[in-house]
Every structure is written in C-alpha cells, then in structure tokens.
Design brief:
Elements (H helix, E strand, L loop, with lengths): L2 H28 L10 H30 L2 H24 L5 H26 L3
Helix pairs in contact: 1-2, 1-3, 2-3, 2-4, 3-4
Keywords: Endoplasmic reticulum, Leukotriene biosynthesis, Lyase, Membrane, Nucleus, Phosphoprotein, Transferase, Transmembrane, Transmembrane helix
Subunit structure: Homotrimer. Interacts with ALOX5AP and ALOX5.
Pathway: Lipid metabolism; leukotriene C4 biosynthesis
Length: 130
C-alpha cells in the first residue's frame, strides 16, 4: 500500500505550485517580466529560493519512494514530512535574507542523507541474500 507516498507526491506538487506562484507575485510586484531573472533583490531571493527548491525535489521524491518501498513507509513518510517543512522554512528564510536559508538548508540536507541511507539499507535488505 503506497497511499501515503502518493499523498506526498501530491504535497510536493502543491509545494512547487506555491513556490512558482510566489515568483509570479514577485514579478508583478517588482515589474520584472519573463525571461528576466534579475532586478529587485527581494525578487532575486524569491526566484533563487524557488529554483533551488525545484532542483532538489526530484532527488527528494526519488529517495522518498525508494526508502518507502524498500525500507519502511512510515519512517520514510516521517522524514518526508520533515523535509517538506524544512524546505518551506528554507523558502521563507531565503525570501527575507540569504542568510535565513542556512539553518533549514542544513536540516534538509541531513534529511536527504537520512533518506539515502534508508533507501540503501532497504535495497540491500531486499536484494542481498539473508
């Protein structure tokens, strides 16, 4: 039963939509038309936060699925929830000041490493003979 993991996939999509909407709102607020990616410093921080989050979500989703399928769905889901929270805090912190992203960035990196470890442990346990 992968229902919990499917819910996370939906949450990830909602996070990506939220981040993209923040960029759209900032473009309107600071009169920065696409394809421009520079302008007001606040816009640049919002834009970079959105891009950075988008870059890491494929890694996160892949590790979440492998850890959830091969290790334990509940443990992976808990890590996933914490990861989404830290990325949201990262986005919020980065939009205020570049230094505001660092704490959540380090926390989300640790969670990715944890998910990687769970995924590897699950794969080894599944494919190696007992």
């Amino acid at each position: 039963n992968k229902m919990l993991l499917d819910c996370y996939r939906s949450c990830v999509v909602l996070f990506l939509v939220y981040f993209a909407l923040q960029v759209i709102y900032a473009r309107r607020k600071y009169h920065i038309s696409p394809p421009e990616t520079t302008g007001h410093p606040e816009f640049e921080r919002i834009f970079r936060a959105q891009v950075n989050c988008s870059e890491y979500f494929p890694i996160f989703v892949s590790l979440l699925w492998v850890a959830g399928i091969f290790f334990h769905q509940g443990v992976a889901a808990a890590c996933g929830l914490l990861y989404l929270y830290t990325r949201f805090k990262y986005f919020q912190g980065y939009t205020v000041a570049a230094q505001g992203r660092l704490g959540p960035l380090y926390a989300s990196a640790r969670l990715l490493w944890l998910l990687l470890g769970l995924a590897v442990a699950g794969l080894l346990g599944h494919f190696l003979p007992p």
